[in-house]
User: What shape does this take?
Amino acid sequence: MQGTVDGFRYGLVTPLVAYLMACLGGALGLRCTTRSMSVQGSWRPGWLALGSAAIGSGIWTMHFVAMMGFTVEQAPIHYDKPMTFASLAVAVFMVGVGIFIVGYKGASGAALFTGGTITGLGIASMHYLGMAGMRLDGTLRYNTLTVAASVVVAMAAATAALWAAGQVKGILWSVGASLVMGLAVTGMHYMGMAALSVHLHSTGDPTTGDSTTGLLALMLVGPLAFLLLAGVVVLFDPLMVAKPDRTPVEHKPGVPAHPHPDIHHRGHHSSPRIRRHMSERGSRTPQNR
Assistant: This one.
């Protein structure tokens, strides 16, 4: 018997919150990736690791917040804890591999393609592994073409986001990239859910695992606390918000501290007359005086 699947139990609330979580994790992760490209030594892997954990935590929380709105009308849903948290580990690890490649090799060419592909596969793996941790009295089935399309969307989104992070063009650039990444990752999630159908069993055996409500507290407390900590680190890092040093012209080496008073006071339009007057004075000789 086919189960009646509903992915929007609470309307637009869960999709919007899920999108915000994906954007938050993406923004922090991309800023950390950008920051890593301006440091050397042991600081670089530290920033890259923080960025990997931020993006992985953001997309994992996005997934399960969105799953709060997912129901199968004829069957209660539970979750297997080890499988659920394994999906978080996979997300952080695979996203980390992609970010480290771009962080050390640069956001261009083969390194960008490889890093974006691995990061995108990590996002997709997190989604489908998290779905595999779902327990209900039935069998999950997927449409192969829709699943493949969702994986392509994840890889394209990850590649575009890592390219934007490598441009090092300021915080607004990273925020814009995170908004696009959040939209693509959330879209990939709902595209994957559209590929799902549930064939219910008629055994009536109770399922085992934790309820959706029980896991919600764990998902919101742990990852949100981490994302908050990562946000504090990014916010108070001086080089993340430092402005370029704009030294006044009169203090730069090789530039006179006090320009010619006539030029300073008369302005740009009078400068040709001043230059002509000075030229005439210089061309005079003692005999002509």
Observations:
- Residues 34 and 169 are 9 Å apart (CA to CA).
- The mean pLDDT is 78.
- The chain is about 65% helix and 5% strand.
- The first helix runs from residue 13 to 36.
